[in-house]
Amino acid sequence: MEAHQHSPDSSSEECTVLEAPPGKNTCPQHGKVADLFCSACESALCEDCGSDHDDHPKVSLSEALEQHRSRLQERLGAVQGRLPQISDALSFVKDILQQLTNQRASIEEDIQSSFEDLHKQLDVRKSVLLMELEVTYGLKQKVLQSQIDSLIRGEGDITTTCTQTEEALAGEACVANLQVERKLEERLKELAGLRLPCQPEENDQLDLVMETDGLRKSVHNLGTIVTTSAVASQSEAMGGGLEQCIVGHPASVTIVTRDKSGGACKSGNAILSAEVFTPDGSIVDGEIVDHKNGTYEFVYTVPKEGNFSLALRLYDQHIKGSPFKLTITRASEAEAEAEVSPSTTTATNSAANATPSTGSSEGAKRRGKSPGQKKKGSKRASSALGTPRRKTQNPIEDDLIFKIGTKGRNKGEFTNLQGVAASSSGKILIADSNNQCVQVFSNEGEFKSRFGVRGRSPGQLQRPTGVAVHPSGDIIIADYDNKWVSIFTCEGKFKAKLGSGRLMGPKGVSVDQNGHVIVVDNKSCTVFIFQLTGKLINKFGSRGNGDKQFAGPHFAAVNKNNEIIITDFHNHSVKVFTPEGELVLKFGSNGEGNGQFNAPTGVAVDINGNIIVADWGNSRIQVFDGSGSFLSYINTSADPLYGPQGLALTSDGHVVVADSGNHCFKVYRYLQ
């Protein structure tokens, strides 16, 4: 029992029973209890280890263990801190994979549907050709068969008469046979002069011309699965639009897409979106040009000075440095600053560590005329106020009835509202673009409902820009980023989509008097006319500044003659076409005067055929008669518009307009 009373440091052999069990605070060399720790060797030391570690820094073992535990705990916390990020990334990548899977299923359905339609068309053409063959053969066969019948009859008559005459001549000549022989003589005389169709009255040509080489080539190249390897985290932007921006002047930004390793992508068709917005929301439209080589150009014009942000998203994710901060100045201010410092830069990158791309932007050319492009030093009297300060004849003294909305994501709040529609049942429908939904209100502004789920699968909305109501009650929505038009019931339940594989960037939609769906494809500069079933009836238009061409067309309306009215944004004009695509009327030019436009957007037609146009860059609403002559403007000075977009006439005769820059819609009295 006394042995157990000795100090653990005693050299008595009886103390061996007090040595720490192996593996717990023991010296690895001597097996004795360690009370020090050599920092240089990172090992525990007992009393016998001292001479080997005299020159090494040492601390108490408990302190060393505590420091080690502290470092381990710190590293554990740091690594555990990554778990939410990894979880979010995992969820996001799973969502992308799910979207990819959904898109694959959708494309598979489109391929099946397209080829089934082609099979049907081929079968129809086959039936038509076989029918045409039978009809043509029948007509020719009838002629030839009639000729054959005539020749057989003539041959029979001649043979019979000749036989009878030969028999008479073989008999004895007598008075009794004279009368018979006279009849034979007359008959022979008739047959000698008988006109028979001895020359063919038809030919045997019946050929098939089947030019299948071109068709086979077309079928061989029919359809393309389009994708890129571009990722937002590696893609970059550059250009003057990030360096110096002047009010009313077009600014250009070049986007270079790159893959996960930073390699430049060489093909186009990436899903890219660009928005210039104030701190309280999106307000400025622009045009993205795909150069089909992995680079893109975004051209925009800002109508007023101030601080803005430019968001560039690739597949809904910000590219490097996005959003960019922009300071927009007037031309005179920019020139004054340039005199002080030739290298003035007014844009700063919100991501401090973003590296500018070294990719070339050569060959990037702007397409179409930008809104607001004016001569140096020109005055913009009406752009900021929404109503011209100069007096015009016969102004319509209409007042604002009410406005609904503010920036946000809740009911009655908007983020970049675009298209507007009004139903005969007293509803106002708003395409809330950046909230990926459609909101429905009464004519009095009471919120009724909203529908829409963000996504790229059928039934989901990615960027709704246009909305219309079909006479059946169905709601038709142009989805710019999904490149199709979705059809929903009046309750907001998805029914079908149309235009997939044909549309490149649908902006506005309307319905003609035959119930056909009019789609304005902003990106391809083409107007499409579909049946509600999705069958294409007609299409017309191409990119350019000709009478039958467009430069970023926006919205459409249909008049009582079933003529289609299109706002041609970058050509600063309004054009009227027949359903066959023939130009009926064109009016408007770039400017601020009466009847001039700075990028027209929304359009509607009243019961008298007058055309109401939202003038985006001039922030006003103008009224024209059916021949395109300026009548007046709607007075909006009480609460000025800022970048109006879609426009419609309500069932009770008022004008409703999407005031995009102010994140609301407004309803005005309208004197028809």
How would you sum up this structure, described in words?
The chain is an alpha+beta fold. It has 3 domains: about 65-195, no CATH class; about 230-330, Immunoglobulins (Immunoglobulin-like); about 400-670, 6 Propeller (Neuraminidase), CATH 2.120.10. Helix content is about 20%, strand content about 30%. It contains 5 helices and 38 strands. Strand 25 (about 515-520) and strand 26 form a beta hairpin. The longest helix is centred in the N-terminal third of the chain and has 89 residues, at about 80-170. Mean pLDDT is about 85; it is low at about 1-20 and about 335-400.
Count of helical stretches: 5
Question: N- to C-terminal separation?
Answer: 116 Å
At the first level of CATH, the class of the largest domain is Mainly Beta
pLDDT averaged residue by residue? 83
Secondary-structure-based class equals alpha+beta
Q: Please give the largest β-sheet.
A: 7 strands, mixed
Tell me the helix content. Answer: 10-25%
The proportion of strand residues reads 25-35%
CATH topology of the largest domain: Neuraminidase
Low-confidence spans: 1-20, 333-398
Tally of separate domains:
3
Number of DSSP strand runs: 38
CATH superfamily of the largest domain: TolB, C-terminal domain
- CATH structural architecture of the largest domain: 6 Propeller
Shape: elongated
Please tell me how large the radius of gyration is.
42 Å
GO molecular function: ubiquitin protein ligase activity; zinc ion binding
Catalytic activity: S-ubiquitinyl-[E2 ubiquitin-conjugating enzyme]-L-cysteine + [acceptor protein]-L-lysine = [E2 ubiquitin-conjugating enzyme]-L-cysteine + N(6)-ubiquitinyl-[acceptor protein]-L-lysine
Organism: Nothobranchius kuhntae
Keywords: Coiled coil, Metal-binding, Phosphoprotein, Repeat, Transferase, Ubl conjugation, Ubl conjugation pathway, Zinc, Zinc-finger
